[in-house]
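How a chain folds remains the central question behind the approach discussed here. The record that follows shows the chain in one-letter code together with its fold in token form:
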Amino acid sequence: MITLLKQPVTWRAISAAGVSAAAIILITILILPVSATPLAQLRPFITMFSTAVFLLESLTAYFLAIQFFATHDTSLAALAGAYGFTAVLVLCQILVFPGIFSAPGLLGAGPQTAIWIWVFWHAGFPSLAASALLLRAPSLAPARAMPRFGTALLLGGPVLALAAAYVATAWSGALPALVAGNSYRALQHSPIAIVVLVLAIIPLPVCVVVTRLGDLLSLWLGVTLLAGISDVVLAISASARFSLGWYIGRGISLVASCIVLFVLILEFSKLYHQLVKSHAVLAQRATHDGLTGAFNRGYFIEQFPREIGRAIREREPISLLMLDVDHFKLYNDLHGHQMGDDCLIAIVGAIQTSLRRPADFIARYGGEEFVVVLPDTPAEGAAMVAEAIRLAVRALGIRRDQMTGACMTISIGIASFDAADDALDVVEFIRRADHAMYQAKANGRDSACVYMGSGNVQQFRGAAVG
């Protein structure tokens, strides 16, 4: 099954991703030499940044989870788990960050808790993302179709984040010191920095090799992973919190949190638009004849009783025309089905032009038979409409055959009643119109007959009945 985010990329998407990647690389190169420049300590920035990342990552995980439950593709579940992992760790980091809610941080945090959560975050997310990418490999196709395995991956990310946060908090005193006050110099000279950087870099080539960046998800996830590398590089080179590199790294990290979410929202918007269009098409097909565009028999059977009921309630007359195309089988046999279809389409168009009021409607009753419902119309008015239809069909000039030069015509039966002095059910109403139509055919076709009661009909051609 092709999901929204596994559709082939367009040149527009490739160009946008290329520009984004180039901007991230350029900013990193320009900031790197001056990344250690100290700036003002804006502690509210930490709260705003963490809150924004938490919301963005949570939404991304949620939308990816929706994709997983719709497709049972465990690679999407694994990626949703990776984003859930980040969301939980960011929430934990803001709780334990020194000076935000308390001087040492909440939950019994130590001075190394926040930096170690940062380490687990920036090493864990790319690793989990790489695992999700590896599940895209063709050899692991059976694993991608295991819903329970996918659910475990989806829930595993947040659970792993809670475990990492517990380690960073409960074992803060036993972990190597990476920060002193606001200084990251210990991190700069620690093997931990190399490990984090390597784990941040490896998933990018994995993404390229496994997916070839051939779909929207892979393309923009690649840009996200590149932004994560930039964040790690700038944070390590900045050597301190609240430095230029630290702030820019947080900004790039925030952008990275937006990328896949933005694509998800864009694609879900496209899906909604497609669903609306599909619903309109299905609604059209459910009520309209696929060939002629007239309403279908199902719509007539559903709508006609409503029109009769309304006529009875409002004590208004109503008329029904039953129309049959004369000699249509002969025309179809002589000219073929395509010409026969074209003939019916043209005749329906002529009938439509003869109906002047929005409430009047035509429906295909079957084959070459059609019905026209005329609300608030007595027999005299229906006869005038029938004559207009008859003349409009003749005016088409559709030759029935070359030998006689005769044109295609129609026969029309008319049934009417006044709600004030007649009680008539739907079946009987249709039977009367059908009886009048067959009488018009028996009388020579190209004419109309009005049902007059007790099985009697009155025929006319060229003038309405009075």
